[in-house]
């Protein structure tokens, strides 16, 4: 279903991009019959680059991760159309028309694929999953499958091998594999999620082959990647696969690129919203008086403390009332958050729901204390709870947004949040920052996690 919907979306996007280019051209352009051959050629190119096969292996269907390949496909198409002379259009495209075609293709493919996946997720049946592994991992997967965008799956059965004595002694024998095969067919399982324990690699391979033989998709929780993330390069050492782990900290050039990106984004943002900042400042001042800004000590890069700026959204003596409200705390493991906090002012409630109270942090970015994207800046009491390798999260400057923001900070326990921050640093790239910023926009507009 997903492949067919994506195919329809791609065809609509390609045809629409060419039609728009021709119709909006100032010259009297017209498509030739040869242009019709461009559609199947582009579809074949998308197939060869794996753009129709990802969804079968993934639990979470997302379009943004495909953006680099889609941009490459759009670039190749626009370049060929420009160099082809009068083959596709009855007269050659000029530079402006070729640029418009490229933008229309790139944007159209992204939007059409996102819409296609949204439709497919709505009409597709829920993916039935069998979890094979320990109870803790099973609970983690169950929580991740509920309430997350791009996912429509549920765990219908859990097989904990450590709790069955015969499994712990026999391992993945032929009889046990037969039992698993029969179980998947009886329960109509679509996918098996495996959390490997200390078993022989050959036994695990036999398990995967058994599941694949009856048409069950397989996902594996790799234990090593909980620490190093996906920041690995696969190295073929004459028939033996070795994973090379990239350096954890940013190189000087990468840090420079990130800083330039932050300065450009924060500077442009301050110029764009400066009138809005003035209006908000006046509204906060008129709503009960008191200071316009709320300054709070946070722990930044390398443990250096700084004062994070926000528009004040609570009454002036909010901190002194915190202890009396701890029994209403809705967050977990050290975080403090109340959905209907009585300390919030009228203007503050609107600022929080729209996330506009965070805008002064753009100045923290200009001052070099924060980044657009990074680990969540923790208050001092929260930071004291972070121990061991999780403290490597302080290798980067804290961010206005980050992977924790997309998940919803009120729903993520502190221990899980710092692990997410660690993996963000281990896998950092400029494209990762751009993806998080783009995913933050609909998250804020949908008022999730607030």
Question: What does this molecule look like?
Answer:
With 450 residues, the protein is α/β, with parallel strands linked by helices. The chain is 48% helix and 12% strand. It is built from 17 helices and 11 strands. The strands form 4 sheets. It has a 4-stranded parallel β-sheet, sandwiched between helices. It has a 3-stranded antiparallel β-sheet with strand order 8-7-10. A hairpin with a 2-residue loop joins strand 5 and strand 6. Helix 4 packs antiparallel against helix 5. The protein starts with a helix and ends in a 5-residue tail after the last helix. The model has no long low-confidence stretch (mean pLDDT 82).
Strands, helices and their partners?
Elements: H1 2-23, H2 38-48, H3 54-57, H4 67-83, H5 95-123, E1 127-132, H6 135-145, E2 153-159, H7 165-170, H8 174-186, E3 191-194, H9 201-213, E4 217-220, H10 225-228, E5 232-237, E6 240-245, H11 252-286, E7 293-299, E8 305-311, H12 346-354, H13 361-366, E9 371-373, E10 378-379, H14 380-383, E11 399-401, H15 403-407, H16 414-426, H17 430-445
Parallel strand pairs: 1-2, 1-3, 3-4, 9-11
Antiparallel strand pairs: 5-6, 7-8, 7-10
